[in-house]
Amino acid sequence: MEIYTALKNDHDKHRDLLAKIDETSGDSERRRELWGEFYCSVKSHAAAEEETFYAALMKDADGQPKARHSVAEHKELDDLIDELNDMDMSSSGWLNRFKTLRHDYEHHIDEEEEDIFPVAEDVFSHEKAEQLGQRFEKREKAELSLVAEKSESKLVD
Ligand SMILES: [Fe+2]
Ligand SMILES: [Fe+2]
């Protein structure tokens, strides 16, 4: 699978989770479950995306500015995700802050698909895009177990 399809599949999953979380209320089991799924998936996606797709794009003169811009956005989004993760889900502020995250994250993935993929398609051969896709899927699995491990040790603390 080419890297673009692998990334887009995750983005679609994230869009769906964000829409579902937006409809939850208070500190409910459904909100916890959906948020936990989004949290682990988005963290492992972003890490693997940086380690494969953006690391490769960064090496190209045309790709570098786009890659830098996106990686900087990852940092901002990651801070917001951690802030939400530490916030009391029953507080009225949680959903407000979540709506900011939803807006910013959807903007980020729209931009990846609409502005960055076309640049990357010029930079990478089909073969390279396939190879990056495979590496991405492998990295994402490894990152997912790291994220899960971390959030479990946090529960024990
Ligand atoms: Fe991203
Ligand atoms: Fe992405």
Task: Give an overview of the whole structure.
This protein is mainly α. It has one domain. The chain has helices spanning about 5-20, 30-60, 65-85, 90-125, 125-155. Helix 1 (about 5-20) packs antiparallel against helix 2, helix 1 runs antiparallel to helix 4 and helix 2 (about 30-60) packs antiparallel against helix 3 (about 65-85). The longest helix has about 30 residues, at about 90-125. The chain is globular. The N and C termini lie far apart (about 40 Å). The structure holds fe (ii) ion (2 copies).
Looking at this protein, list some descriptive labels.
single chain, 157 residues, mainly alpha, binds fe (ii) ion
Low-confidence stretches: none
Q: N- to C-terminal separation?
A: 40 Å
Tell me the β content.
Answer: under 5%
- Series of secondary-structure elements, N-terminal to C-terminal: HHHHH
Major sheet attributes: none
| Total E-strand runs | 0
Question: How would you summarize this macromolecular structure in one to three sentences?
Answer:
The chain is an all-alpha fold. The chain has one domain.
Task: Reconstruct the topology from this structure.
Blueprint: H1 3-22, H2 29-58, H3 64-86, H4 92-123, H5 126-156
Helix pairs in contact: 1-2, 1-4, 1-5, 2-3, 2-5, 3-4
The chain binds fe (ii) ion (2 copies).
